[in-house]
Design goal:
Rossmann fold, alpha/beta
Length: 220
């Protein structure tokens, strides 16, 4: 595996890359569905819905259970209440994430968290896993006018750190991450253990594919 030289900035996805967030999403979705007397969702299904933000997640869940009466707006409001309640209940960091982030920061890299998850949930989530200090910039899915796969968040990070696109990489598990990186002209690093809508990350043609998060320490 060839080392990537001259990198200043590392952009990270969150769900499916740093955190296995599906357990908490399931608890919140099913609590919301309970209120409307609708069937529950399973982890295997939810893994294929993650990546486009919470409104899209709720929309996919409602469609999956055959909802024909509950409004998207009402369901979203109830879900957000439940997700705030269940946040950090059952989700966990993937192996070696905290240690690897700490090492990368000690090597002097600038780091940006670029996720489509709503900004309001990020402070508590990052604090719970004790990784807040490992990010110099945090952008949620509603922080800017557009989110992944649009390159706006990545371009914002480049400008924020006065960093050229040739000095940055995008690390993620799904097509939204890889496409956002490619659309901004960044080198892309895909992780195989994440969600990616149930499809192999190799189909995305990323520049690099790794199986474990700590393999970043070899690449960078």
């Amino acid at each position: 595996m060839n080392k990537i030289d001259n990198i200043k900035l590392i952009c990270f996805d969150l769900d499916g890359t740093l955190v296995d967030s599906v357990p908490d999403l399931r608890l919140a979705l099913n609590a919301m569905l309970n209120e409307f007397e609708l069937p529950h969702c399973k982890d295997e299904d939810i893994k294929t819905w993650v990546g486009n933000g919470i409104p899209k997640l709720v929309e996919r869940a409602l469609k999956h259970v055959g909802n024909q009466t509950v409004s998207q707006c009402e369901a979203l409001s109830r879900f957000e209440q439940h997700y705030q309640h269940y946040l950090n209940s059952a989700s966990c960091l993937y192996d070696n994430v905290a240690e690897t982030l700490k090492t990368l920061k000690s090597r002097g890299y600038e780091t940006a968290l670029i996720t489509n998850k709503a900004e309001q949930f990020l402070p508590d989530l990052l604090a719970n896993f004790k990784i807040s200090d490992y990010f110099d910039l945090v952008l949620g899915g509603d922080s800017l006018a557009k989110n992944k796969p649009d390159p706006m968040q990545v371009n914002y990070a480049l400008e924020h750190f006065s960093c050229d696109k040739t000095q940055a990489v995008m690390v993620g598990d799904s097509k939204n991450d890889i496409l956002a990186g490619k659309n901004a002209g960044l080198v892309s690093i895909a992780l195989t253990y994440g969600y990616n809508y149930g499809e192999p990350v190799s189909l995305l043609n990323p520049d690099y594919i790794i199986d474990q998060f700590n393999e970043l320490l070899v690449l960078l």
